[in-house]
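Troubleshooting entry. The earlier prediction with PBG gave an output that would not parse, so I re-checked the input for stray whitespace and re-submitted. Clean input:
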Amino acid sequence: MVRMRRLRANEAVRSLVRETAVSRTDLVYPMFLIEGEDIKNPVDSMPGIYQYSVDRMDEELDRVADAGIPAVLLFGIPKEKDENGSGAWNDAGVVQTAIRRIKAKLPELLVIADVCLCEYTSHGHCGLLRGHKILNDETLVPLGKMALSMAKAGADIIAPSDMMDGRVRYLRDVLDENGFSDTMIMAYSAKFASGYYSPFRDAAHSAPSFGDRRTYQMDPANRREALRECETDIEEGADIIMVKPALAYLDIVREVSDRTCCPLAAYNVSGEYAMVKAAAANGWIDEKRIVMENLTAIKRAGAKIIITYHALDAAKWLAEEE
Ligand code: PBG
Ligand code: ZN
């Protein structure tokens, strides 16, 4: 008789046959940086997550560095927005200022700059508009300016999340032509038009003022198209590709991981975080167990890099277990 339970009899043998281990070095911690002074605003729909002004962000960055997390992903919340999102490439902008400060203080910490216009446009869309149409090629120009401004400030990785076609090649060219051929690109490749982003839009003040993002983000029903998006971004020069959200899209993570050799990230997004935190706050689930189970599932599906708001907690729990 085959007795599968022999391999489950105690923790020693279970640890010996365990196939997947999440490590602190897999994690990326997203942070919201708000223009202004002395600000630490809680994000209501994301308990434990705050908007920090640059002068207050050090407390959080110290926790990230002490936890052994290798990278942060930065989002900016500017005071002023306009039609074209011109604040996005202001060299004195909130994210650019934060990057210079992080690189001076914690040079080893990898800084990933999200590149998208939606936090900087008055209409909240990720691209330039003609009427209610989101323009593709015209949007590449401001994205290029934003990416260059982030690279000049010292960003190690540029992460375009806009979903315009051709942006990876365009940004690669802009970076190379300006002496930033060492700056990496982590492309939000298969980014779905998801209901799981709404807490983020509260946190980053980036909800679209009309319509939705379905003409540029992917249809949640599509698998083959996700593979095509990933292939295209690799061809265009992405160093790292991404599937987003993570948990409802683990089939996509698995398939992309099987079919490509490019490092793969999965973004465990705001709505996924909010659901876990809400159920935990009600005492309905054991937060630590659920978080570690979710992160293990994302890694088991084939993502090496996990972008998650749980990163600080997870790193602490992993260190306790060492
Ligand atoms: C901006 C952007 C979004 C997220 C990351 N970059 C929101 C959106 O597309 O509306 C979502 C992240 C999250 O929900 O945690 N383009
Ligand atoms: Zn956007």
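This one parsed fine. The radius of gyration is 20 Å.
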